[in-house]
Specification:
By secondary structure, this protein is an alpha+beta fold. The chain has helices at 21-24, 28-42, 53-58, 150-157, 169-184, 190-209, 220-233, 242-248, 253-259, 267-283, 292-298, 304-315, 319-323, and strands spanning 2-7, 13-20, 50-51, 61-68, 71-78, 84-86, 94-102, 104-107, 117-120, 123-129, 135-137, 141-149, 162-165. Helix 4 (150-157) runs parallel beside helix 6 (190-209), helix 5 (169-184) runs antiparallel to helix 6 (190-209) and helix 7 runs parallel beside helix 10 (267-283). The two termini are 33 Å apart.
């Protein structure tokens, strides 16, 4: 169990806390350690429900929470199901967003839904939480659960829960911003934490409205990260280009170029570098029989000569020389 909390002062805290069954053992001890930390850190704002005995005893996975003052993002990758046993009866007033990345989860009769909400892989569900509702997940689950204060989003969500695809442009920029927060939260000072929290809320509004302001400088890093995430998932796609990624994110190529202007490389250079990195990994993989010409074709270089020149520029060795290097 690792705990990293960084105080922001009387107005709130920012930090992370993690339960990792791989490093601390499976089951009740790991799960309850996370719950104890949550209750100490966020329990007054967002009390947790009571989970079933099978959830506690069989927990296998990694649960990581990131807190930014009155906002939290919980990410779970598990190989055991979660199921609530008891939910509190006290009133709530916050917005919850569930994004499922693997498996599925079911929320029992969430407020204003008019029936259960089933959230499957690649989709999201957002609603106004007035009273706690039961939920359960499939055994293999990967999700992010966002908790936002009611005052900021209530008027947009109350009475009208939202559901959609996690691949929408607004969802992908929100997820990219969240990934950056997860990576840097422990190093954020009060001003940066407050700015990150506000940007997260604005991007949540963008998800509700299915639009984000691509001219807003605050969102520029998230836009660049979303583009990188899309590129990384499509490196072997012949159609991958700044134009296709810009179209996917519903922004202009010029807007995408501006997002990379303050970085060390252009988006085209990023794609080329990542393709070369993947080619280098494949060429040096144990038992690999990949030829230079096959690597050039797989990662869409014009021809073997072009691939060799680009590879040598990045690694100061030809692909054949690089593949012969000792591990």
């Amino acid at each position: 169990m690792s705990r990293r909390l960084h105080l922001l002062g009387p107005s709130g805290k920012v930090g992370t806390f993690t339960a990792d069954a791989d490093s601390t053992g499976t089951g009740r001890r790991t799960w309850e350690s996370f719950v104890d930390t949550w209750n100490a850190r966020m329990g007054d704002l967002y009390p947790l429900p009571e989970f079933s005995s099978s959830t506690l005893d069989g927990f296998q996975g990694v649960m990581r929470s990131v807190t930014l003052q009155d906002t939290a993002v919980n990410e779970l990758w598990g190989s055991s199901s979660l199921r609530t046993q008891t939910v509190g009866t006290h009133e709530h007033d916050h917005i919850r967003l569930y994004v499922v990345l693997r498996g599925a989860m079911t929320l029992r009769d969430p407020h204003d839904q008019g029936g259960d909400a089933h959230v499957s892989t690649g989709t999201y569900f957002m609603h106004h939480v007035v009273t706690e509702n039961h939920f359960h997940t499939t055994p293999e689950i990967g999700n992010r659960i966002f908790i936002f204060p009611g005052d900021d989003l209530r008027s947009l969500v109350s009475g009208k829960p939202r559901a959609g695809q996690a691949t929408s442009p607004a969802a992908q920029v929100l997820m990219a911003h969240t990934t950056m927060i997860q990576r840097t939260v422990s190093d954020l000072g009060p001003a940066a934490a407050h700015a990150s929290r506000n940007a997260l809320l604005e991007l949540a509004k963008g998800l509700i409205l299915d639009h984000f302001d691509d001219r807003e400088p605050t969102f520029t890093p998230a836009l660049a990260q979303a583009a990188k995430d899309l590129a990384d998932a499509r490196l072997t796609d012949a159609e991958l280009s700044p134009a296709t990624v810009a179209a996917h994110l519903h922004v202009s190529v010029r807007t995408l170029q501006r997002a990379f202007a303050s970085l060390d490389e252009s988006f085209s250079a990023y794609i080329r570098r990542r393709r070369l990195e993947k080619a280098a990994q494949a060429l040096t993989a144990p038992g690999s029989r990949l030829t230079v010409s096959e690597a050039a074709a797989r990662w869409h270089f014009t021809d073997s000569s072009h691939f060799i020149r680009a590879f040598k520029k990045q690694y100061q060795a030809t692909p054949a020389q690089f593949a012969r290097r000792p591990a």
